[in-house]
Amino acid sequence: MMAGVGGGNDFQWCFSQVKGAIDEDVAEADIISTVEFNYSGELLATGDKGGRVVIFQREQESKNRQVSRGEYNVYSTFQSHEPEFDYLKSLEIEEKINKIRWLPQQNAAHFLLSANDKTIKLWKISERDKRAEGYNLKDEDGRLRDPFRITTLRVPVLMPMDLMVEASPRRIFANAHTYHINSISVNSDYETYLSADDLRINLWHLEITDRSFNIVDIKPANMEELTEVITAAECHPHQCNVFVYSSSKGTIRLCDMRAAALCDRHSKFFEEPEDPSSRSFFSEIISSISDVKFSHSGRYMMTRDYLSVKVWDLNMENRPVETYQVHEYLRSKLCSLYENDCIFDKFECCWNGSDSAIMTGSYNNFFRMFDRNTRRDITLEASRENSKPRAMLKPRKVCTGGKRKKDEISVDSLDFNKKILHTAWHPKENVIAVAATNNLYIFQDKMN
Amino acid sequence: MINTMECAVDAQSLISISLRKIHNSRTQRGGIKLHKNLLVSYVLRNARQVYMNEKYAEIYRMQQYEEVMTVCNEIQELNPLDLVEDCEEQTGDCCGSANESASLCGALLPVSHQAPAVQHLQPSSACSVPLALQSEEVCKAPEPSFYRSCCAEAYPVSNCDFSPVNNMHCNKTTVLDLDTHVVTTVENGYLHQDCCASLQQCCQGAQSPAKKRKLDFGYYVSEIEEVPDFTPCKRAKFEDSSYASTEPLDTSNISNLISIFGSGFTGLVSRQADLEQALNGQFCSKQALASLGAWTRAIVAF
Prior knowledge:
heterodimer; A: 448 residues; WD40_repeat_dom_sf (chain A); Serine/threonine-protein phosphatase 2A 55 kDa regulatory subunit B (chain A); protein phosphatase regulator activity (chain A)
């Protein structure tokens, strides 16, 4: 009996699709760096280290196949960012897409924001399925006609054509960040958005590219006094004046933009006291928050640090209301993880649509789900071996010591090169997208 | 207190690994990652703290051993035959740690423990006190309060009485502001909090005039090829020469992390011991500790 995770019901996660090359040799440019569903869940966008954005669209549910839901197929692919060189500072700017955020759909076209380390771009993705034919001044193949040979006038007619999806950059928001952008977040007013780098947060208007407001600045006057950086930021889902940002010290600050133009002084400060008995060389590293996400309700927020996920009630600042251990067995391996740089991996986390479950990634292509109501948790694996259509995923278990049972995997056997940093949950259904290096796995609940 | 038992990697290895990471971050695509380097600097600070605690504990043990041997000597003058056994017992406790390191500076090296080889009854040679400790300026046993403060705090307060010098500028840090593109040299006034010893002496061989560097990629002047490996095995070649002469670039700012560590972590300490014959063991480690403070801050200062 497979124990699933869900809001009261047991879910059974099944493999649906996998996108990406099968080669063992992974090109660095193909490594997925961000995954995001749009507001309806119809579109799924991925960004990679090569600066490309790939958008998948869910096909309409066919009446014949009621059991399985629509599959995601490639809708559009475009190069969002190119590598750049800052000549003034002699710095190369990576083209890697750090974040993608969708805008809510307001007309036939779709809009998304994509950000690399320095620049944010607003892309319009629109469909074209008609083409005008019968121009007067040019032939069908586009060559200009000799004006003297035109003897009659005709009205061009729109003819159907093969669907073409075009992506065009509508706005480019550049030159506002000295440090590396780690977050972008669209405000609930759908007019503004914020972008955060290591030391500053800027507020933009979607229509205005030559100006942004700096709303948080934690850069000290003397950089020698620097003790923490901003690691993530997000706008509140309903209150357009509220946002939060997390720090490398494991703290979260909630700010109200109505209070002051510069929100250096927080309205709320969330911090859990450190357990002195667990102090180690790496305490600061593992307490650094890598992701912060509001719940859909806006009542809670979730933070991810290296070993755990914490759920905070916005009304309680002194400690989280829930803490989930993602891979506590790594605590004794921190030295090795520091040497091979894995300890700096930034895992993300996400809520399901009803806020009853949360999901985050781990190593060995494992990802973890926690049911907030039943307090059950499950570990699943994204692998090609379990990639038969609608094959049910078997729960995985890591053996932390003693005798290893069958089907368990020991900590020393974990592949730390296979890490799941980015996951996304469909906003309305139990469909999840999991990025495993250069592959995108899509899993669905069987009951769907 | 930091739990140091979690892994076999000792503080010194961690320091070495961390510095290597910082050095490698120079050449990574996308520029220096502020967040990662800040976290690495925390590991450096923690390792330094543990290292300092261990060293002060060692110093304290050496001091106790010194006192015991002094008493042994005095008593032996009265009755050499009766007290050899006592000395041997003491030797077993103290020489074990003393023989571990040929000098206190050498104590910085991960040397395997050597069993005390007490062959002679002459206490002066049987218990081979490190040369440094035989200096007249052997610091008296540190007061417990100082010891505690040194162990407990990352930056020992300047309440110890080893040196009256409190506001020496040992190091200058060059900082490039990414926003204004201004290179400024910051007098590091924090050092007096770290180093109770005379900073003037500690910087004697290491000081070079702080100069404004032209804007360059990264903040470390040394070229990559000039930076030797950080592993301890390479330290030997720097032990004999003075710091100034091994400095490949005389225009390097002393707080340049790579130029400091280009001499090797332990090499730096042993050179200082060579320069200052009167230095006692505490002085030696203090200089290293003082420099560490600057290093930690210089790392953070982008």
